[in-house]
Amino acid sequence: MTIKLPNVLYKYMKPYRLAKLKNTRAIYINYLNNYPQDKLGNYVGDDNEGKIATKWEIGNYIFNSGDVKNPAFETAFHTMQHAIFLGKNSRNITIANCTIEDQIDESNYYVLCFCLNKDDRMKEEFGSSMLIVRDTVRFLDELNVQMNKKGLMFVTAGKCFYINNRVRKYTEHDDKFITRRYLCPPYLLKDNSYSYQNEFRIIWKRVDNNKIIEPINIRCSKALKYCSFSYAP
């Protein structure tokens, strides 16, 4: 996997949190199932982290008729089908006025969130102080060393993509599909309402794949050498 890392990242937080980070040299890393909206509000909180649905809205289509009208659609449909099985020997199977929804949950990950740019709205909602990563490559290299010691494995890093209601909708007339193995995984997808945050994420998972039940604090002075601390004026 080729990962393009930005040179600089910004993490907004309350001034007391930044002071604590500077004093303890411990980086707080949350997990995707730990952003309850009822406690954190609609700016920080998100009850649907790591979740996405694919909705197939089929008006009228005949499968296995000998005359494939939309090969891309049939290939994508067969990739995701679970409840409906259309065998190779079946003929002239018509699906009409049907909606099929495929739900995916990939939320068992640790995540460290940043902003790709300075932003006044982010400062207002998340906190007026910033941890500024000045060298993302070296910062991540040092952090991964400490994460590995905890039995945690780096998965990926990338900017978030934003879609309406976390739902991809397809019909029999479409010819381009992203099926179960998303080009953009669910843990990097957010609803459009968060798009102004311009978020960049670093993702890890447990090597043993056990359920993550609490955030962690990683002491990593070497990683923080590549950061600066910007306090509220």
Keywords:
2 domains; 233 residues; five-stranded antiparallel beta sheet; alpha+beta; 6 helices; single chain; three-stranded antiparallel beta sheet
Question: Could you walk me through the main structural features you see in this protein, from its secondary elements to its overall organization?
Answer:
The structure is a single chain. By secondary structure, the protein is α+β, with helices and mostly antiparallel strands. It folds into two domains: 9-50 and 108-165 and 181-230, no CATH class; 53-103, no CATH class. Helix content is 23%, strand content 35%. It has six helices and 13 strands. The chain has a five-stranded antiparallel beta sheet. Strands 1-6-13 form a three-stranded antiparallel beta sheet. It starts with 8 loop residues before the first strand and ends with a strand.
